Fold this sequence. Notes:
The chain is an alpha/beta fold and 232 residues long. It has helices spanning 26-44, 48-63, 118-134, 149-159, 204-220; strands at residues 3-4, 19-20, 89-91, 97-99, 107-113, 138-144, 165-166, 181-182, 184-188, 194-199. A 6-stranded mixed sheet has the order 1-10-9-5-6-7, covered by helices on one side. A two-stranded antiparallel ribbon has the order 2-8. A hairpin with a 5-residue loop joins strand 3 (89-91) and strand 4. Helix 3 (118-134) crosses helix 5. The relative contact order is 0.19.
Amino acid sequence: MIKNRNCIVKNRGKYGDKCMADGKTKKMRNAVFILGAVMILALAGCNSDMASDSDKMEKEQSDNGSVDETKEAQDYDVLKEGDTAPEFTAELVGGGTFTLSEQKGKVVLLNFWATWCGPCVKEMPAFERLKEDYGDDVAILAVDCMEEKETVDKFIKKKGYTFPVAYDVEGTIGMKYPTDGIPHTLVINKDGIVRYIYLGAVDADAQYGEYKSAIEAALAEGNNGQQEDAGN
């Protein structure tokens, strides 16, 4: 079941709060402006020569077996429980990278958040507790949504969190995991299948209990989504 805590920060609901992904950062505002400019140019029929060159380039790429880069900008469907989690590689705070496919065989807790999102910040101690509980047996990753690296670095240093945190300055990872708000958290099983989806948060204690139950259920599946025999 999708845990949809359906409310916004200024309108607290029964289950908790979420922050709307509605241009809170400069990059979100810039993205809207750029998209509008591109649409105006397209409607005006400008740069026909460039369009011809683009068509020619696409044909050459097709002939050469090249990957069409426009695929990176495709629309992604909202994920449902039972879907395969989209692949990504993220740069980590403090160095290194996290690649989802490299976590196969582990349960993954994937969270999307931002420093300006109150409910996101409020639940983060839960991830620290879960890291202490499971160590390397469960992969935890909190992906910051389109903030500058310096902002994220400063926040993590101040809070002293040790669980993995990743940058997504351009929003390329978040694009693959569409949502109408954050925090947005997914529990992914050992085979890369999304098992639980949470939107919004109450507080660290409540979310710790929710996520721990989901992780335990995913761990009990074993590989290939099968329940492990309790006698093994």
